[in-house]
Amino acid sequence: MKQLDVSAIKDGSVIDHIDSKSTLKVADILNIQNEEQMVLVGINLTSKFLGKKGIIKIGGKIIDQKEVNKIALIAPDATVNIIKDYEVVKKFKVAVPDVIEGIVKCFNPNCVSNHHKITPKLHVINKNPIKLQCHYCERIMNSKDILLI
Predict the structure, then answer these.
(1) From the CB of residue 86, how many other CB atoms can be counted at a distance below 10 Å?
(2) How much is the average pLDDT of 114-140?
(3) How far apart are the C-alpha atoms of 25 and 44, rounded to whole Å?
(4) Fewer CB within 10 Å: N-end or C-end of the chain?
(5) Confidence category of residue 31, pLDDT binned at 50, 70, 90
(6) How far is Cα 72 from Cα 100, in angstroms, rounded to an integer?
(7) Which of the pair, 80 or 147, is modelled with greater confidence?
(8) Are strands 39-47 and 51-59 parallel, antiparallel or unpaired?
């Protein structure tokens, strides 16, 4: 079987082990708009762990903690590699934090956080599958209810 290799990046981030159906959602989180950046998005790649997986490589961008927290909500099995001078200098699995602030909007249209200048705050009840509870109205949200800010 012939296989093509993808070129390495000098500096940047690689998000690997993304569930294939979540790959484009993760790409949206990263808000890649710089025309000079090298970006690779691979979907439905073979994975021993997931069966099929997605991967995103971004040259010149080190993802921040807020982006990592958003990715954890969409792709809880993802891993992040930080690359400097063609070497992996940091590698970690994403983790859903216990409290999520300013990342997810409460899905309850009557919630005070949707009508006043209050930062949305949700408590994580379950990490996989994801289940969140609004700090203000106490409504419980599942993954299908998540609306990232």
Answers:
(1) 9
(2) 94
(3) 14
(4) N
(5) confident
(6) 11
(7) 80
(8) antiparallel
What is d(CA 24, CA 136) in angstroms, rounded to the nearest whole number? 31
Q: What is the mean pLDDT of residues 51-57?
A: 92
Tokens at 19, concatenated: 């569930």
* Residue 56 burial (10 A CB sphere; 0-12, 13-18, 19+): buried
In angstroms, rounded to a whole number, what is the distance separating the alpha carbons of residues 63 and 78? 13
Residues of the chain by 3-state class (helix, strand, coil), percent to 5 = 20, 40, 40
User: Structural domains in the chain?
Assistant: 12-93 (3.30.70.140), 99-148 (2.30.30.20)
* pLDDT over threshold 70, residue 34: no
Cis previous bond, 129, omega within 30: yes
For residue range 87-111, what is the model confidence (pLDDT) as tens digits?
999 999 999 999 999 999 999 999 9
Q: Within 13 Å of residue 133, how many CA atoms lie on the same side as its CB?
A: 7
- Separation between Cα atoms, residue 32 and residue 34, nearest integer Å: 6
Q: What is the dihedral of CA 114, 115, 120, 125, to 10 degrees?
A: -60
What is the structure's pLDDT at 94? 95
